[in-house]
Amino acid sequence: MKEIAKKIFGYFDERFELENLVHFMSKKYVPVHRHSIWYYFGGVSLFFFIIQVITGILLLFYYKGSSDLAYESIKFIMSKVEFGWLIRSIHSWSANLFILSMYIHMFSVFFEKAYRKPRELTWLTGAVMFLMSLAFGFSGYLLPWNELAFFATKVGTDIVGAVPFVGETLKYFLRGGEDVTGATLSRFFGFHVALFPGIFTLLLVLHLLFIQRQGISEPMHSEKSEEEKKTMPFFPNFMLRDLLLWLLVLNLLAILAVFFPAELGLKANALASAPAGIRPEWYFLFMFQTLKLIPGHVLFIEGEVLGILLFGVVGLLWILVPFWDRKSSRGIRNRMINYIGIAAIVFIIILTIIGLM
Amino acid sequence: MKLFNRNLLYILLTVIASPLILFATQDQCFTCHNDLGDNASNLFKEDVHYKTGLSCAGCHGGNSNSDDMDVAMNKSQGFSGVPKQNRVSETCAKCHSDTSFMKKYNSKISTHQLESLQKSVHGSLATNGKSMIVQCTTCHNAHGIKKVADPRSPVYPTNVPQTCSKCHNNAGYMQTYNPSLTVDQLAKYRTSVHGKLNANGNSKTAQCASCHGSHDILTSKDVRAKTYKLNIPKTCSSCHSNKSYMKEFAIATDQHDKYKNSVHGKAVFEKNDLSAPVCNDCHGNHGATPPGLESISKVCGTCHALNAQLFSSSLHKKVFDENKYPECETCHGNHEIKSATEKLLGVSEDAICSKCHTESKNTKGYFVAKKMRRLIDNLQIADSNAKNSIFLAEQKGMDVEEAKFKLRDIHQSKLEARTIVHSFEEKKFKEVIAKGNTASKQVITEANAAIDQFYFRRYGLLIATLVITILIISIYFYIKRIEKNQ
Question: pLDDT tens digits for A99-149?
Fold first, then answer.
């Protein structure tokens, strides 16, 4: 077995000079410290993205992106296509876990202040990818064209419509008309399988390229000297650990897909009344719940508009943190960032729990 | 003498002071017109109003005390001549809608007749676009009006059919109002039990007004109408369930009670099902009569067409006719028809077949009935098994929608079996049952496949998890090993 592997490696090495690559990777080192565990969530997010691409392509073989056939095609995938149920369930669970791991990865980078100079652009590409992962979730949610998705999209695009000045135009653009129709499904399908993956891949390449060039960020204020700092080779140590975690995650994904397969519900019917207790996916829930809790009018401004503006401003500040957190860039401890991060986590968790109740 | 003169003076003064008084001792209008011998005054002599002392002026206005035509028929005296259009009914209503006035005559007549008439189908606008279709005089006549209880009255029960048919038998006239309405009601009515008794002078038997009402007649499409489909059982039972009223006719009075508990009655009373039959669907309406023995299957067959057709071409038809058994009724009853279940079939005590077929009498039918019952019982078991398999698969969270849809084929087979049983042919019955059994087998196969798939997924997961876990452990030890050597 070992001999065969060696022969195969030799075959490729002869042609592509793989030995150089292995040598290059083995010379790359990853810092080892008590927060090293958070490094792995970038890799886990990448793994989920790969799963999404693979299962998404498989689903594309049978999925039909029109309001007449979308629901039926998913039904066909779930009941007739060999392992179709597994592919769709994995795609659905992986989407959720992808966003969860993106959240964890983003917050860990935030708390570690790894966005500080010179890694501002790495943070920026990551933040845009995070927003895109939410957009992936929103557009993909409509594709089965079931009742819940239909009304959730209606509510979601209505919220977009409340954005001052550009809201109505944006809503019209997203819906492909006045209302959520087959035209909305067609463009959401286009966004989900062509536009978003294209942009995301580009950003991902940039993100990885930046990491390759700049290396992995080390924690601030390490008391240890350069000699005392522990590291591990990227290859094979870190990669093998990454692989181990990916396999663990794959196991979890398989268990979730088998025990809790993705549901389909009833086909969307524009003439039917909205089902009771309609709410968005969990990752949008804290925003949705906040908008619900804000009074109808606050002073001279509509509650919903105020909420959207607040989220917009906070989101923008969050994305631009490397540019206003000067202290961290200068290597000075900035506890305020930690407090903001903790407040954001507490806010998200509490509002999500309220929304789920 | 002086006293007499004073009294006379009072009387004269009273008469002079009340020129519009309706009941005068001397009706000068009538006196003159009677002398002229005109038809109106001739008829008025027999009029109920004349007999109670009402004068011509009561309806026509004017001064009935004056024998001077110019005074009596002067407009300044309130003379209005012959009332036209709605003025006719309004003139009648002047008194008939006045409760205090009618009280003077100890009248028990309702004072809402005009109101009812206006709201009725006859109260809608006539083709002239000015008045109601029907006025009081249309049915009651103008001069010579008799009490309803007077056999000479056009609205006396035995005269009602003729009175209504004055218009309703006139095709040309009826066409101007309702071209789809038939004009043969009277002819049909005369063929009915009601019509025959009525023609023989029986005033208790139902006539037009008994079912349709009098002043308040509504179209049968109107849910308030006595003849609206869902109200018909109540309308018929107002007489037919009244024991004392029906005493002289010597027929049962429990039809309504029985019907109420029947499958048809429940559909009508509990589900408001307009497609379910009410009294007139089997008995007819204007020509109401119990269906004859041979025609029962035809009557039931208007709805249960296949059953009737199969029965009519079966062996039983001949036997039933020979023995004068009422067709459908022999097995299903009449007013109290219960929902037909498998229990009717077979040779058990509660089965209908065993009434005529026993092991020693009419034996062929006995064995066929026994076999048919066994077949349908087996189909019932097959249906339960199929449903159970679906239940088990669904409990495991599997999608068995298609198989579930096929359950309908079993149900359809059961329905068909209930129909084909009326052919009393074992072969045909078997074919129908076989369809259900095949469908049941398919459902069970598909449901079991779904259950197998469930276990396949579980075992597949177990194997995949084991493989992945072994890989994880291997990698873990591999990492340990290489890190030890580094």
Answer: 999 999 999 999 999 999 889 999 999 999 999 999 999 999 999 999 999
Q: Which residues on neighbouring strands pair with residue A267, listed in sequence order?
A: A146
Chain B CB contacts of A236 below 8 Å: 482
| Length of chain A as a residue count | 357
Host H or E run for residue A302 = strand A301-302
B467 touches chain A (CB under 8 A): no
* Distance of alpha carbon B189 from alpha carbon B288, whole angstroms: 7
| Closest CA of chain A from B274, distance in Å | 28
Question: What CATH number is attached to the domain comprising A89?
Answer: 1.20.810.10
The answer to whether the Cβ–Cβ distance between B401 and A78 falls below 8 Å is no
- Domains of chain B are 346-485 (1.20.140)
pTM confidence score: 0.68
Note whether residue A96 is domain-resident.
yes
Q: Is the minimum CB–CB distance between B471 and chain A shorter than 8 Å?
A: yes
Give the residue numbers spanning the domain of A182. 2-218+229-271
**Which of B45-49, B119-123, B312-316 is most confident?**
B119-123
Number of separate domains in chain A: 1
Residue A18 within any structural domain of the chain: yes
Q: How many Å apart are CA A261 and CA B352, to the nearest integer?
A: 53
Which residues in chain A have Cβ-Cβ distances shorter than 8 Å to B478?
Answer: 240
Average pLDDT, chain B: 90
Measured between beta carbons, the chain A residues lying within 8 angstroms of B483 are 232, 237
User: Would you call A248 and B483 a contact, using CB atoms and an 8 Å cutoff?
Assistant: no
> How many beta carbons lie within 10 A of that of residue A77, not counting itself?
21
Tell me how far apart the alpha carbons of residues B486 and B474 are, in angstroms, rounded to a whole number.
18
Please say whether the beta carbons of A59 and A77 come within 8 A.
Answer: yes
Quick: pLDDT tens for A51-70.
999 999 999 999 999 999 99
| Contact predicate B146/B51, CB 8 Å | no
For residue B119, count CB atoms less than 10 angstroms from its CB and return exposed for 0-12, middle for 13-18, buried for 19 or more.
middle
Cα angle B427-B432-B436, degrees, rounded to a multiple of 5: 140
